[in-house]
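Page 37, continued from 36.
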């Protein structure tokens, strides 16, 4: 049913997309192996009427493009409008301006034009440098690094729609050749074959979205049309229907001009842009430049001269010989067909409302993110150390040159592992570098990035001095260098083999920083390629890696509309307003991608401390599936634990009790007839005074009282044995079947200690949390984290008589020193997600098999159809819905809730993880509003509704 719904939705979206433009007429696009450009593939009555109604001067005016600067004042706009109206100017080229200003200027100038204007932008694909308020598209060198041409196609399609939104019809780009290419590129057949396909993908996408893409050729003396490989690529694109060409020449080529060569030798029929004509001392010289441009086959050119002299300019064209006049007028026909194809015959002004929001839409962000991710190259990977493994043993330091721009990179690294940060200036840095290295101590790995880069500066913001120092460091330390600058910087790296890894991230913009960090840890794969050889880096020899850890992205990457997720805010804020909880963390993961990570509210109702991702919650009974379950799985895979064995097989002193014959399987399924819980703390009160017994508790620890229950409260160490005895002496329930119980997990804690020789917290930490990079998952968090980072729970007025912050809330776990199998674990939502993703991956995370596949499958499967439980894990009831989870969860889904207001749920069928952490018992343990308001299932439902739609 969901499949049919999705298919129907996709069809509706597809039809809606087509309706953006009027597609009832021929929509021929590139790729049909014809040399006819799309705009010349059919007859146009409108184009013919323009030819009949305009005189020679007006037709010549249609061949002219004027530079237009949106940031100029309205006086400039009016003068430009007068000029366009008087001389029937054909179009404008937009330079530098905010998106709203650009749209406003285009609307105004279109209102003045006698014939709708062709609006071009001269920016390549890195349009953010030309138009403010847009998301950072990729520049030409980045595009060449993307190995998947479908990504290029998608990027160009989005850019086309954004141009349309502003009223822009064409772009000068992509380049078929760049001045930055090395000399040896002309003999590299593989490069040119890849290049032509990339250019074709970009041109085709724009043609299909009715955007006029003009291919730029940087023609130099080193590159002649006698170069067979280069000409073959041009010929390929011409045969595909190339529609526009602009040639940059380093010299004044007269006999071998591309505007002439392409139509004569390759059969090119599209529009050719001539050399831009700038103001000159005399009209004779201007006329000479124009004549040469016309003779060489130009159809359109940019005039950047004084408006006052334009009449003489027009006259100089008209009074020249008829051959020149006819040549220009023949180009007029192409221009009119182009304008018709672009929809200018029925031009409408663009709405200026919400222009920035539309340009920066989630869909656009998703595509640009995907392209950025696909353009990052792994150029060196010694001994396949990327993605990093063994996070439990890594002491990582980051060095950032350029002190104020590395925040996103370092913040994302911290989502995977603990790091120490060093910030250095880009000048006079040597003394500070080694002083800080000494201060941070020993390091297993150093990651170095140079920030505040610029693709237009001489050294791109990465000085040779800095690179030499980084190389010197790599000779004696394990160094990963991340180049947040254009590829040309790579020429200055002399000994790449000295580095653990070298990553080409192209720029230091936010998306590049984010995905460079994710690539290091395996959040994303590496498959981009260096297009051509640069210094010691050979073209096409980059390293390929696979995704192995959680990725961080946005909902749209998974085709989830973030607007549908906005309902979560209302649910949470309603809960906070009604004091169901003071704050919470929510994380959602689908297909291994963290697409929702948000924090709400405060640590306490009267606190000014906002909840952040690094805050740590008391996870309560989530401990059962996040600590006890995986440790028992590990014992199972090592044949130290068998679910078919009896309790007496593992704990000998149970042999003579009513617990000895209990099967491990039944205890795991909560069907062993154990009591739900025992209020152990009540046995430690003096019955007369109703105070805690002084023979059991002290405020300051000593040799007999070192088991800490709370702040300045220690219980006698021997009371652990008393708890165990009370469990063994407790009666069993009379009826069979499911009955939730904590008591079995006290027993599992003891079994783990016996079978592993270590306590559950040390086993879980070394086997799971450390290699997962889940450092916040821990028992007794005050031993590792500052108190302020831990969210408080109950103001316990009956037992410990204090606000609990950093001490486990569960009374029984507290009396065991905070370490138990049923409660005691603390952590943040993101680290919980890592462990749950490991379950969905059948025990694999970070490229390591942490738990065997068989063990995971055994524990998360429902062995008894009549029971709602898997082994430890909760599941959807067989006949009905669980009160705490969405009604949409699959039958195979599993998870657990926690008394403190927590829940985690994994759904293998939908490859989805939901995590909600709160402190709903703050400050009152009786607060059950989170249940009455159905906060958690409502939020869970929103996610499913957004995913399934």
């Amino acid at each position: 049913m969901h499949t049919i719904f999705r298919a129907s939705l996709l069809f509706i979206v597809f039809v809606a997309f087509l309706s953006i433009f009027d597609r009832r007429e021929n929509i021929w696009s590139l790729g049909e192996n014809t040399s006819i450009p799309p705009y010349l593939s059919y007859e146009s009555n409108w184009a013919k009427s323009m030819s009949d109604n305009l005189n020679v001067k007006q037709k010549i005016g249609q061949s002219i493009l004027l530079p237009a600067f949106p940031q100029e004042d309205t006086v400039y706009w009016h003068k430009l409008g007068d000029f366009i109206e008087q001389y029937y100017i054909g179009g404008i080229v937009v330079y530098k301006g905010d998106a709203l200003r650009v749209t406003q200027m285009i609307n105004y100038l279109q209102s003045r034009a006698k014939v709708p204007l062709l609006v071009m932008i001269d920016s390549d694909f890195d349009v953010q440098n030309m138009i403010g308020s847009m998301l950072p598209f990729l520049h030409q060198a980045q595009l060449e690094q993307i190995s998947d041409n479908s990504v290029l196609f998608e990027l160009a399609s989005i850019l086309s729609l954004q141009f349309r939104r502003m009223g822009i019809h064409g772009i000068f780009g992509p380049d078929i050749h760049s001045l930055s290419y090395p000399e040896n590129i002309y003999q590299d057949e593989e490069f040119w074959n890849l290049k032509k396909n990339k250019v074709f993908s970009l041109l085709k996408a724009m043609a299909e979205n009715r955007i006029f893409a003009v291919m730029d050729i940087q023609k130099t003396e080193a590159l002649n049309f006698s170069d067979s490989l280069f000409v073959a690529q041009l010929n390929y694109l011409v045969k595909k229907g190339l529609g526009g060409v602009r040639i940059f020449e380093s010299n004044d080529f007269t006999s071998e001009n591309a505007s002439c060569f392409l139509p004569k030798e390759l059969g090119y029929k599209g529009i050719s842009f001539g050399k831009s004509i700038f103001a000159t001392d005399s009209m004779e010289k201007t006329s000479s430049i124009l004549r040469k441009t016309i003779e060489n086959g130009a159809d359109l050119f940019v005039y950047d001269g004084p408006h006052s002299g334009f009449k003489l300019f027009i006259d100089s064209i008209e009074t020249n010989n008829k051959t020149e006049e006819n040549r220009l007028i023949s180009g007029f026909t192409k221009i009119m067909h182009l304008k018709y194809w672009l929809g200018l015959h029925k031009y409408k002004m663009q709405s200026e409302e919400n222009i920035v929001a539309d340009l920066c839409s989630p869909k656009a962000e998703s595509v640009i993110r995907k392209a950025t991710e696909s353009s990052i190259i792994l150029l060196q990977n010694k001994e396949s150390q990327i993605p990093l493994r063994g996070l439990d043993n890594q002491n990582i330091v980051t060095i950032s040159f350029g002190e104020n721009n590395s925040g996103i990179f370092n913040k994302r690294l911290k989502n995977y592992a603990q790091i120490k940060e060093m910030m250095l200036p880009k000048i006079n840095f040597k003394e500070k570098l080694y002083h800080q290295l000494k201060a941070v101590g020993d390091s297993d790995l150093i990651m170095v990035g140079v920030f505040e880069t610029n693709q237009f500066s001489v050294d791109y913001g990465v000085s040779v001095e800095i690179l030499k120092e980084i190389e010197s460091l790599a000779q004696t330390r394990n160094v990963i260098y991340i180049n947040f600058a254009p590829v040309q910087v790579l020429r200055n790296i002399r000994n790449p083999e000295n580095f653990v890894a070298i990553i080409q991230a192209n720029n230091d913009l936010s998306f590049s920083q984010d995905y460079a960090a994710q690539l290091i840890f395996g959040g994303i794969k590496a498959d981009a390629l260096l297009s051509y050889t640069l210094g010691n880096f050979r073209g096409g020899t980059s390293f390929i890696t696979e995704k192995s850890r959680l990725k961080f992205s946005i909902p749209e990457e998974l085709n989830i509309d973030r607007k549908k997720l906005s309902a979560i805010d209302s649910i949470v804020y309603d809960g906070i307003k009604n004091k169901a909880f003071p704050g919470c963390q929510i994380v959602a993961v689908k297909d291994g991608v963290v697409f929702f990570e948000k924090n709400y509210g405060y640590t306490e109702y009267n606190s000014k401390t906002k909840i952040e991702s690094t805050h740590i919650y008391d996870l309560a009974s989530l401990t059962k599936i996040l600590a006890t379950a995986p440790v028992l799985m590990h014992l199972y895979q090592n044949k130290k634990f068998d679910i078919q064995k009896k309790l007496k097989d593992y704990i000998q002193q149970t042999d003579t009790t009513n617990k000895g014959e209990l099967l491990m399987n039944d205890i795991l399924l909560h069907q062993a007839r154990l009591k739900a819980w025992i209020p152990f703390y009540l046995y430690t009160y003096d019955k007369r005074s109703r105070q805690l017994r002084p023979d059991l508790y002290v405020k300051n620890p000593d040799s007999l009282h070192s088991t800490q229950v709370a702040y300045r409260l220690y219980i006698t160490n021997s009371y652990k044995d008393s708890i165990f005895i009370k469990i063994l002496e407790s009666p069993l329930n009379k009826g069979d079947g499911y009955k939730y119980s904590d008591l079995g997990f006290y027993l599992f804690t003891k079994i783990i200690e016996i079978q592993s020789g270590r306590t559950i917290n040390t086993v879980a930490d070394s086997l799971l949390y450390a290699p997962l990079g889940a450092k916040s998952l821990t028992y007794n968090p005050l031993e590792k984290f500052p108190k302020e980072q831990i969210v408080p729970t109950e103001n316990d007025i009956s037992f410990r008589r204090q606000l609990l912050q950093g001490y486990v809330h569960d009374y029984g776990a507290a009396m065991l020193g905070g370490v138990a199998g049923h409660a005691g674990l603390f952590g943040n939502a993101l680290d919980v997600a890592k462990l749950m993703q490991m379950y969905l991956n059948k025990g694999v995370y970070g490229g390591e098999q942490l738990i065997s596949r068989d063990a995971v499958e055994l524990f998360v499967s429902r062995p008894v159809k009549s029971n709602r439980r898997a082994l430890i894990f909760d599941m959807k009831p067989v006949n009905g819905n669980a009160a705490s989870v969405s009604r949409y969860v699959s039958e195979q889904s599993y998870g657990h809730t926690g008394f403190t207001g927590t829940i985690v749920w994994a759904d293998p069928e939908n490859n989805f993880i939901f995590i909600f952490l709160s402190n709903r018992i703050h400050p009152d343990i009786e607060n059950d509003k989170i249940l009455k308001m159905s906060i958690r299932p409502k939020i869970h439902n929103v996610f499913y509704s957004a995913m399934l739609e």
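The first strand starts at residue 64 and ends at 68. Flag for discussion at group meeting. The chain has 31 helices and 34 strands.
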